[in-house]
Design brief:
The chain is mainly beta. The protein has 3 helices and 9 strands; from the N terminus they run ββαβββαββαββ. The structure holds zinc ion. The site of zinc ion (ZN) has 8 residues, from loops.
Length: 139
């Protein structure tokens, strides 16, 4: 399975972790269904895997961030015509639970390409039949 996407860094205000997270890009939900990533707390390692492969769960250094909530900032549509609603609409902001201390306030502090993550000293492991394809950002 060939995957592509971006690396996001979650910064935890509680324990100071800099946790990398892979955001998979896919044409459909089907394309990324079951794919997950796990990272360390020092933005050094990131592993991509399919959830049916349990290997990575035995790695003590890597953990997966869980989505805490999607904060929907869109205003109530009540009483608004569609044009006004569209002007006011903002995409939802995702927050994650810190996998290291369970704080719920971590947000994405930085987003980069996989190549930039590696250039900064990080390592990306693809586990099982996953192959990371570098996207258009690299060409
Ligand atoms: Zn934390």
């Amino acid at each position: 399975m060939i995957v592509s996407g971006t690396v996001q860094l979650l910064s935890c205000p509680e324990c100071g972790a800099d946790h990398p997270l892979f955001r998979f890009c896919g044409d459909t939900d089907m394309a990324t269904d079951g794919l997950a990533s796990a990272g360390d707390r020092d933005r050094q390692r990131l592993a991509l895997f399919h959830t049916r492969d349990a290997e990575v769960e035995q790695d003590e250094e890597l953990r997966s961030a869980r989505l805490a909530e999607a904060i929907q900032r869109a205003p109530s549509a009540v009483g608004l015509d569609f044009q006004s609603f569209r002007t006011l609409y903002q995409p939802s902001e995702l927050t994650y639970r810190c996998p290291w201390c369970d704080a719920a306030e971590t947000t994405v502090s930085q987003e980069m390409t996989p190549a930039e993550f590696v250039d900064a000293g990080g390592r990306i492991d693809c586990i099982g039949a996953i192959e990371l394809r570098e996207g258009q950002a690299f060409s």
